[in-house]
Every structure is written in structure tokens, then in C-alpha cells.
Specification:
The protein is α/β, with parallel strands linked by helices and about 350 residues long. Helix content is about 35%, strand content about 15%. Strands 2-3-4-5-6-7-8-9 form an 8-stranded parallel sheet, with helices on both faces. Helix 3 packs parallel to helix 4.
Length: about 350
């Protein structure tokens, strides 16, 4: 019997956390095996705030790659209220930095050094608009009076809409969208706005956080949302809209930091990212649109050349181990101990 398969132009991951040091070396090969390029997040400790720091981080990533790998890390800067126009110009001139990441202070892991008052970052934003260096946005407010499940929708209305009015030529990516409200906002934008979608937000709603007890390995920020939101994300990802593209937000944490009294936010999906997305697209009857979502839309938005070469997914069982090594600990992957229905071939 013929095995069902899908061949894609080699894809990119437009939102990836790699961490640093020995832990990074343990997870890097998973992404490098699947993706030609990845936009690497700058929320290390301390954060990657300057061009020099970004280039040094890129060197550490490249040194940790398997010898035969051609994987290319696309670097980002961590926006602060002290980011200068000169730093933005240096970032653009480097040719290695693809965007600047906005973390509202305290919004997620290692966001304590993020932006408190966006008005204080205006000089950097104006320079980014002039240099055509995109702004990559963690779209959540941190106001303690706002319900945690509403933080993205409030951000869109309260922060993103005026930001786009003030900087109409600044390209922006609303990363890891999770709500129908955010999807519809991106769909209504005439130009200059795109969004990434993660595998976990396509596969699960917020019930997964509590199924059979509190499930720390399904805890990420932004949180999983309602089933109606998940369906809106699936429709956006699989519907052919070029403003939506692949960004895993794969975010490894050691098991001890996840299974803790105050567990870290983040889901590790890099081990089987393409297989997880293929499951979603197959269920939606849209396998023919996976190539655009995974391999074309993001490159086109960022103005990058589309990748040469291909990868092949086959409909074949893929057992997922209970854990992977991660520095001095282990990381629990999404769908740990389960069996997926798609497999990326060598």
C-alpha cells in the first residue's frame, strides 16, 4: 500500500527559543533538522540588547550546530526604553538581525527587563520604521486588573492599534496569536502586519491545562484559550491567508522548573514541530496549504529568499519519548509518551 506523504520546500521557524550553553546544545539539533532558518528570541539572562551581543549569541549557536548542518539563526534584539536609534542602525547594518522583540515588562519568561512605557521607546521605534527593521510583539498587557485570558485581546485594542497608527510604515509581527479577536484584527489589516501561530494553540484549548489535574507542561504564555479561539486559529493557518505563518514558540525549560510550586511558562515542541503542524492541516483537509504556511508566507513577509531544497513528511507512526536531555536536567516535550501520525524522513 502506498504511504501518504507530503513534500515541502524546506521550512522556517519564525519564533524559536534556544536558550544558551549546554541546554541549547541539547535542543538545537531538533530545530536544525527540520528548518533552514529560525528567528531566535533574545530573552536570555541577561537579555540580548545590542548588536554585539546578538552576534556573539549567533556565534555560540553556530558553534553548537551539528557539523553537517546548514541551519541559519536569524537574530533579534530585546527592545528596552534605552534602545537607541544608533543601535537600530547597527542592527540593520549587521545583516544578521532580522527584527526587534517587544516584551511588555513581566509578560512572560525573562521579560522583567522589557518595556514598561512604550512611549519611552519611541526613538527606537522611529528608527526601526526608518530602517525597515520589523517589530516582533509579545501581545499581552500586564495590567493586574485584566483577566489573564483577556490580556491578548486587550493588548490588540489598547496598545497595538494606536501603535500601528503612530508607526504606519513599521512592519510588525503579532507573535503566537491565540484569540479569534487577534486573528480578525490581523485579517483586517491592510498591510504591514502578520502573525505567527504555534502548534500548541492549534492543537489544544485551555481544558488541556486542567485535564486530570493541573498540567504544567501545557502551561505557556499566552495561555491556551477557548475552543472557539482554537478554531479561528486553525481557519487562519489553513485558510491560505499569507499574513499567517509558522512560529513554534518552542520554549524549553528544565523539568524541575516546570514541575514546581511556581512553574515556568513554555512548551517544548521543536522535537516534532512539522509533524504536529501536519496533524492539524490533515485534520482540516488542508495538507496542500501546509507548504505556504511553513515555507513561503514568513519568508515573503520578512523579504527573505525562499529556501532551496525540500523535506518530506510521511504518514507513519512516530513515538515521542517521555523526555529529552536538557543541560543538567531534562525537558518534557509536547505529546511526551504519545505517538504522532506523521514522521519527518531523513
Amino acid at each position: 500500500m502506498e504511504i501518504l506523504s507530503v513534500t515541502l520546500p524546506r521550512p522556517d521557524d519564525f519564533h524559536l527559543h534556544l536558550r544558551d550553553g549546554a541546554a541549547m546544545a541539547d535542543v538545537l539539533a531538533h530545530s536544525a533538522r527540520q528548518f533552514a532558518r529560525a528567528v531566535v528570541m533574545p530573552n536570555l539572562k541577561p537579555p540580548v540588547r545590542t548588536t554585539g551581543e546578538a552576534l556573539a549569541y549567533r556565534d555560540r549557536i553556530q558553534a553548537a550546530l551539528p557539523r553537517e548542518s546548514h541551519f541559519q539563526p536569524l537574530m533579534t534584539l530585546y527592545l528596552t526604553e534605552a534602545t537607541t536609534a544608533d543601535e537600530i542602525a547597527r542592527a540593520r547594518d549587521s545583516g544578521a538581525i532580522i527584527g526587534v522583540k517587544l516584551y511588555p515588562a513581566g509578560a512572560t519568561t525573562n521579560a522583567d527587563d522589557g518595556v514598561v512605557d512604550l512611549a519611552q521607546a519611541r526613538t527606537a521605534l522611529e528608527a526601526m520604521q526608518q530602517e525597515d527593521l520589523p517589530l516582533l510583539i509579545h501581545g499581552e498587557v500586564t495590567d493586574s486588573t485584566i483577566d489573564v485570558f483577556d490580556r491578548e485581546a486587550v493588548f490588540v485594542d489598547r496598545v497595538l492599534e494606536p501603535l500601528r497608527r503612530d508607526f504606519p510604515a513599521l512592519r510588525m509581527v503579532l507573535e503566537h496569536v491565540t484569540t479569534q479577536h487577534a486573528v480578525e484584527y490581523v485579517q483586517a489589516a491592510e498591510r504591514g502586519l502578520a502573525a505567527t501561530i504555534t502548534p500548541q494553540h492549534l492543537l489544544y484549548n485551555r481544558n488541556a491545562l486542567f485535564a486530570g489535574g493541573l498540567q504544567p507542561h501545557y502551561y505557556c504564555l499566552p495561555l491556551l484559550k477557548l475552543e472557539s479561539d482554537r478554531q479561528a486559529l486553525i481557519a487562519a493557518a489553513t485558510g491560505g491567508d499569507r499574513r499567517f505563518f509558522l512560529g513554534t514558540d518552542s520554549a524549553p525549560h528544565p523539568r524541575c522548573a516546570k514541575e514546581a510550586a511556581c512553574g515556568c511558562a513554555g512548551i517544548y515542541s521543536a522535537h516534532a514541530a512539522l509533524e504536529l503542524y501536519a496533524e492539524v492541516f490533515e485534520q482540516a483537509g488542508a495538507l496542500d496549504r501546509l507548504a505556504d504556511f511553513a515555507s513561503r508566507n514568513g519568508a515573503d513577509f520578512y523579504g527573505l529568499p525562499r529556501n532551496e531544497g525540500t523535506v518530506r513528511l510521511i504518514k507513519q507512526a512516530l513515538p515521542i519519548p517521555a523526555s529529552y536531555p536538557f543541560g543538567n536536567d531534562e525537558v518534557i516535550p509536547l505529546r511526551a509518551g504519545d505517538t504522532l501520525t506523521w514522521r519527518l524522513t531523513e
